[in-house]
Amino acid sequence: MEKKSGLVSVIGRPNVGKSTLMNMIVEQKVAITSDKPQTTRNRIRCIYTDEARGQIVFSDTPGVQKPRNSLGRYMEGVTDRAAKDCDVILWMIEPDQFVGTKDSMIASKLIDITVPVILVINKIDRIKKEQILPVIEAYKDLFPFKAIIPISAKTGEGVTELIDELFDALPYGEMFFPDDEITDQPIRQIVAEMIREKALKLLSEEIPHGIAVVIESFRDNENDGITDIDALIYCEKESHKGIIIGKGGSMIKKIGHDARLDIENLLENKVFLTLNVKVKKNWRQSDILIKNFGYKKEDEA
Question: What pTM did the predictor assign?
Answer without folding.
Answer: 0.75
